[in-house]
Design brief:
The protein contains nine helices and 15 strands. By secondary structure, it is of the alpha/beta class. α2 packs parallel to α3 and α6 packs across α9. It is globular, with a radius of gyration of 20 Å.
């Protein structure tokens, strides 16, 4: 199996998650360089490399100064677009950007265009797509088991306290964090275009409870181009902890809810016509100690296949795919600012 050299940019909490997954796949990946603006956050490559050639600087540590096959961007969200462009300029063959592609639609669009111009493969880490529960839901939608889909309900009811926002200065800011939709809700916004296609319009309301710049609770209605009505409720103010991360689909011939705290549980699965796979689907629920789930390993698995000459998995999110959810969030923000419904495609 070809081993890909990785540069990891960002050594915060989500960067640690990426590092853990990469180190668990030594036959596929080798982390050769890490970067962070805070040198105290840089990890010691001797923890995973034998006899590394170490080159240090104020914001980087290169363990093996050799070509980078893959750059992983795990910095604050509002830096993603610019860092994708920088990685393209510095000769990376492929980029995996943590969600969202950026908090600003036009920065995310520029990132896609930079990658295309430089012939760099750009992907976004939207790992919830690979949850076995959501793979089952995707299959049911694609095969037409719901009949005409009438309504969709998406919920992210989690908790983040004041200490969470005080840990890092970028959290809760417009230019680096975005709202609860861009941060905690990003994976759930992505489910809408991934499962149901293009969105026609959105109308959003929001409030802020924490001492931050951005909304920490958002209620959004939407309509898809196929005519389905939808609601999305996202908050980090739920009492007592992370309560629910779910999606419910209501169709003429089916009703399904994937729930739990992180779309990890099949709560409802009822269709007019039975399928031989239904009993297996009900067994796809799994326990998770983290809202991250286990999808990162799946992302890196299919990503390695795509970058080493194999097929690209249809659920591996390209930059252009990831741009769709950023556009929905931008439209929701415009709806908040204008206090009216906002149509898509997004325009200023």
């Amino acid at each position: 199996m070809p081993k890909l050299g990785v540069t990891l940019v960002g050594c915060g909490r989500i960067g640690q998650r990426h590092l853990d997954v990469l180190l668990a796949m030594p036959e596929a990946y080798e982390v050769r360089a890490i970067y962070d603006v805070d040198p105290h956050r840089l990890w010691d490559p001797r923890d995973w490399l034998t006899d590394p050639e170490v080159e240090t600087g104020s914001d980087y540590l290169i363990a093996k100064p050799s070509p980078t096959d893959l750059t992983v961007i795990a910095t604050p969200s509002g830096l993603h677009g610019a860092m994708v462009t920088h990685a393209c300029d510095y000769g990376s063959d492929a980029i995996l950007c943590e969600k969202p592609l950026d908090v600003d639609y036009f920065a995310a669009l520029a990132a896609c265009e930079s990658a295309e111009l430089a012939h760099v493969d750009l992907f976004c880490c939207l790992q919830n797509r690979f949850n076995p529960t959501l793979q089952a839901l995707k299959s049911a939608v694609n095969s037409g088991r719901f009949g005409r889909i009438r309504q969709v309900d998406v919920r992210v009811h989690w908790t983040r306290d004041e200490a969470y926002y005080q840990q890092d200065a970028w959290r809760g800011t417009w230019h680096l964090d975005g709202s609860v939709l861009s941060n905690q809700g990003a994976h759930y916004v992505d489910l809408i275009p991934w499962l149901f296609g293009a969105v026609d319009n959105v109308h959003a309301y929001a409030s802020t409870t924490h001492h931050i710049e951005v909304p920490d609770s958002v209620a959004m209605s939407f309509r898809t181009r196929h005519g389905a009505l939808g609601t999305l409720s996202a908050t980090v103010c739920a009492y007592g902890g992370n309560r629910e991360g779910s999606i419910t689909v209501i169709g003429d011939d089916g009703y399904a809810k994937i729930g739990g705290v992180a779309v990890n549980q099949v709560d409802e699965w009822d269709f007019a016509r039975d399928s031989a796979d239904d009993d297996v689907v009900r067994d796809r629920s799994y326990a998770t100690a983290s809202v991250y789930g286990f999808g990162h390993s799946a992302v890196y698995g299919v990503l390695h296949e795509a970058l080493t000459g194999g097929p690209t998995h249809p659920d591996l999110a390209t930059g252009r795919e990831a741009l769709k959810s950023v556009e929905i969030v931008q439209a929701a923000q415009k709806s908040l600012a204008d206090e009216t419904r906002c149509g898509l495609p997004y325009r200023t």
